[in-house]
Each structure stands twice: as structure tokens, then as C-alpha cells.
Design brief:
The chain is an alpha/beta fold and 345 residues long. The protein is built from 13 helices and 7 strands. The radius of gyration is 20 Å and the shape is globular. The chain binds S-adenosylmethionine. Residues 3, 5, 13, 16, 20, 46-48, 52, 78-80, 83, 110-112, 127-129, 132, 298 line the site of S-adenosylmethionine (SAM).
Length: 345
């Protein structure tokens, strides 16, 4: 599993918080539709340090408590064992000290495993986390990200792995969800025009191409071997709306057979907050530092795990230099797919 966020996640990911904020209307709709019960479990899958979702969970808690004042609420923050789960526990605990004073828990396991008992979760939520693949679908020899590569054969392998993983995630969640429960996924995606995080259709440079160019330059200079160059792969995948909906339209899929149904879906665009600020203040040094740090937060592990910390640091030093040299050509715009699902049986 080639994923680990760098420390201080929330401080470096203003864009991810904006993506969560953009989904808050649908999160509130989901909890408004829950039938009255004596208790509800709410779960945040792939929460990182939980800081980006504190505001969302406050709103959700307030709304659910308002509608169902007698219900006991439990909030579970989930992420990998390698995550900063102490920080996650602290951020989840920010929901304490006021009504409804929920029970708060941390689940330090992969969301590719069953995480709670069947029919437990009333409202499941996940933001910007389920694009990481559970395992490598084999080599990507000519690029660091499959969607930016021209490798059709690798694309087919990565797509197949992404679809297998998504089917598996939905199957697991369909078991955990209570009947009548709702699941809202907010995922990095690929729109009809092929745009995705870091690729805004050519308005600014493709961030994945830039990372690859830097990685290639390290191989050309002999800093890394050709073998390490080939191993430096960002093991994630941005699915299309059709790919996200596929297991819910396939009546033979395990998730569908468990009663999981598609309620609504949409694609939402969140412009790069660092670029927006630079447009206003033209502070190129702050822009280069901020944008580099946010890109580093999700990509560093892919390079550090195969080439070591020092080489990874070199990648981001060069990235920062590139941004600073031509700031007008940089922006990290988000393309996110929102999908509401319900368990009906
Ligand atoms: C970009 S962060 C998003 C964090 C937060 N949800 C947000 O939107 O700001 C992605 C998170 O997903 C977590 N993640 C990736 N694969 C996971 C898995 N298999 N199980 C649980 N968490 C996972 C990572 O550890 C990371 O903290």
C-alpha cells in the first residue's frame, strides 16, 4: 500500500478542506433523511488528521441532534495505522463538550478491510481518500502517473485495479451500513473532458507531467537508477463518473446485492486556493512554498519510499523552483465526484 501523508496534513491542504466544504450541503441532506433511532454511528473513512473535516462534522452533529435530540451519536475517524492517529483523535474530540456530546473513536485500519460490525453505520463519509489503489497493478515504465502517461496497456491495468478496489470498498461499506443509512463519497475524479487533479485541460501545466519531468531529470543526471526511476509511481487513479457509478448500476455486483443504491451524483470543481491568493497578492515565494507543500503532501511517499528522503527532498526543491520561475503557469485545481448512496435492504 504505497500511501502515507506527510505530517501536518491539515495545515498543508487548504484545497482538501474546500472540497469537504463543497460537499457539506449533501452531508446535511444525508443526515436529515435518517429515520429516527435511539443511536447513530457516523464514520469518516480516510480522515487523515481529521482537521479538514472538523467544521463539517460540527454542522452534521448539530443538524442530526436538532432533528433527533434523543439519539446518541458516535463519530468514528478512520485512517491507516501509519497515519497520525493521535492528531486524528484530537480533532475528532473537538466535537465533545457541547450537545450532542458524541462518543468519539478512532479506527486505525485500512478501508479495504471490514471496519465495524454489519449494519452499524447510519452515515458514512469519505473525502479525497479512495483514489489510492490497494496494490500495484504492475509497472508504469514511462511516467509517474498513469493518467498523464500515453501507456494504453498500463492504463488498462490501472483501470482494472481501480474498478476492483472500488467494487471492494463499496461491498465492505454496503455491509457496514445500516438499512436506511447513507454513504456520501467525495472523490478525486476525471471529468468528461479528461480533467483531473493537476490537469485542468491545459489552462496551466499538468502537475503530474511536471513531477515526472523532475523525476526523469534525476535519472538522466544519475541521481537515481533507471530501476528506481521506473519504481517511482503514484499509485492512485481518478475515476470517471461512469466508473464511480458502475457497481451501483450492475445488479449482480456484491454492493448492489447487499442493497446499496445510487441516490445522486455530481461533479464539483474546486479552484486552487494557492493560485487564487497569488492572483490577489502576487507573493510568488509564498505561492511556490504553499503549492509545493500541498503537492508534496500526497505525492512524496511515492518517491521517498523508493529513493529515500534526501532524493524526495530534491524533487520538491526543484518543484518549488519551477513554480517560482513561472507562477502564472501553475495551479492545482480539484475535480471531485460526489456520490450519495443508500442501503435499502
Ligand atoms: C488526501 S487525504 C484526505 C484526508 C481528508 N479526508 C480530507 O479530505 O482532507 C487521504 C487520506 O486517505 C488515507 N487513506 C489512503 N488509503 C487508505 C486506506 N486504505 N484506508 C484508510 N485510509 C486511507 C490516507 O492515509 C490519507 O490520510
Amino acid at each position: 500500500m504505497a500511501i502515507a501523508m506527510t505530517t501536518g496534513y491539515s495545515a498543508q491542504t487548504e484545497g482538501a478542506r474546500l472540497c469537504i466544504d463543497a460537499a457539506s450541503d449533501w452531508a446535511l441532506t444525508c443526515v436529515e433523511q435518517l429515520t429516527n433511532d435511539c443511536s447513530h454511528v457516523l464514520m469518516d473513512y480516510g480522515a487523515a488528521d481529521g482537521g479538514t473535516a472538523v467544521g463539517l462534522w460540527s454542522q452534521v452533529m448539530d443538524r442530526l441532534h436538532q432533528r433527533q435530540p434523543k439519539a446518541h451519536l458516535t463519530l468514528i475517524g478512520n485512517d491507516l495505522p501509519s497515519n497520525d492517529n493521535v492528531a486524528l483523535a484530537e480533532n475528532i474530540a473537538k466535537q465533545l463538550g457541547r450537545a450532542p456530546n458524541p462518543t468519539v473513536l478512532v479506527s486505525a485500519r485500512s478501508f479495504y478491510e471490514p471496519l465495524v460490525a454489519p449494519e452499524t453505520v447510519s452515515f458514512g463519509f469519505s473525502a479525497t481518500a479512495m483514489h489510492w489503489l490497494s496494490e500495484s497493478p504492475g509497472p508504469l515504465n514511462t511516467h509517474t502517473h498513469v493518467l498523464a502517461s500515453d501507456d494504453k496497456e498500463a492504463l488498462a491495468r490501472f483501470t482494472a485495479q481501480a474498478m476492483k478496489d472500488w467494487a471492494s470498498i463499496l461491498e465492505l461499506r454496503s455491509v457496514e451500513l445500516a438499512v436506511g443509512g447513507r454513504l456520501l463519497t467525495v472523490n478525486l475524479s476525471r471529468d468528461e473532458e479528461g480533467r483531473y487533479l493537476g490537469h485542468n485541460g491545459g489552462v496551466t501545466r499538468n502537475v503530474h507531467d511536471q513531477l515526472h519531468q523532475i523525476w526523469r531529470s534525476l535519472a538522466d543526471e544519475g541521481v537515481i537508477s533507471e530501476e528506481i526511476y521506473r519504481k517511482g509511481t503514484i499509485l492512485n487513479f481518478y475515476k470517471s463518473p461512469d466508473e464511480f457509478m458502475a457497481p451501483l448500476k450492475d445488479k449482480t455486483s456484491a454492493a448492489y446485492l447487499n442493497g446499496l443504491r445510487l441516490v445522486d451524483e455530481r461533479t464539483v470543481y474546486v479552484p486552487c486556493p494557492y493560485r487564487k491568493r497569488w492572483n490577489e497578492d502576487a507573493d510568488t515565494a509564498a505561492f511556490a512554498e504553499g503549492l509545493m507543500a500541498t503537492i508534496r503532501s500526497w505525492s512524496r511517499h511515492s518517491f521517498a519510499s523508493v529513493a529515500g528522503d534526501e532524493t524526495a527532498d530534491l524533487v520538491y526543491e526543484r518543484l518549488k523552483q519551477r513554480i517560482a520561475a513561472s507562477p502564472e503557469e501553475w495551479s492545482l485545481d480539484y475535480v471531485e465526484h460526489h456520490q450519495i448512496m443508500e442501503r435499502v435492504a
